[in-house]
Amino acid sequence: SFGRQSSVLFKAVDETARSIERMAAQEGRMRRDSFMSSAKFIVESLHSLSVDFVRLLEGDMPEKSWKAFQKGDVAAFTRRLAQVASDAPAVEKIREKYAADNEFRTYAARFMRQFEELFDQAVANDHSDLLSATFISSDIGKLYEVLCLAAGRPPRTKRDDKKAA
After folding, report:
1. What are the respective helix, strand and coil percentages of the chain, to the nearest 5?
2. Torsion of CA 139, 94, 70, 48, to 10 degrees
3. Minimal CA–CA distance to 119: which of 159, 67, 70?
4. Counting beta carbons within 10 angstroms of the beta carbon of residue 104, is it exposed (0 to 12), middle (13 to 18) or buried (19 or more)?
5. pLDDT confidence tier of residue 69, bands split at 50, 70 and 90
6. Closest by alpha carbon to 111, among 164, 55, 51?
């Protein structure tokens, strides 16, 4: 009787352990899917803000970037800004625009806030730092760092407290 009860108990514990593993795997997939959905929305919003940045910085929309954007390349303006922002005079122009133009400051603050939200989610969901490193090195991350420089504050990607997980 004791052997039978012990065998039944062992099977129950084993099945419970397998159920816990399945639930943990499912939770991980759900968390990843939720992050990816949220990240997609934020990245699209950041690319949309890049269009406004080009308009505010350059006035006219560059023909090549505009055509690429209309063909579905939503990163065309972000890529252009990241390339332009690697030039020191352009960084100074962005800094001056940030200091003088309230509308530009508003867009910049929104861009920085949304990137930081995305970055924080990446750090929380990716313990190997692959996602956060990808976002930092992307055109969006480069533009974020330039905007932080223009705002006179360190980018969150450079802070020691970036990873709480």
Report:
1. 85, 0, 15
2. 70
3. 159
4. buried
5. confident
6. 51
Q: What is the pLDDT of residues 74-112, one digit of tens each?
A: 888 888 888 777 777 778 888 888 888 888 888 889 889
C-alpha–C-alpha distance, residues 136 and 146, integer Å: 12
The answer to whether 139 and 78 are in contact (CB under 8 A) is yes
Residue pair 94/85 in contact (Cβ under 8 Å)? The answer is: yes
Token pair, residue 25, equals: 């795997």
Contacts of 150 (CB under 8 A, 6+ apart): 91, 94, 95, 97, 98, 99, 108
Distance CA 1, CA 143 (A): 71
**For the residues 116-133, what does the mean pLDDT come to?**
81
Q: Which of 72, 77, 32, 84 is nearest to 53 (CA)?
A: 77
Question: Cα separation of 38 and 117, whole Å?
Answer: 10
Report the C-alpha gap between 78 and 65 in whole angstroms. Answer: 10
Positive or negative, the CA dihedral 137, 139, 140, 141 is positive
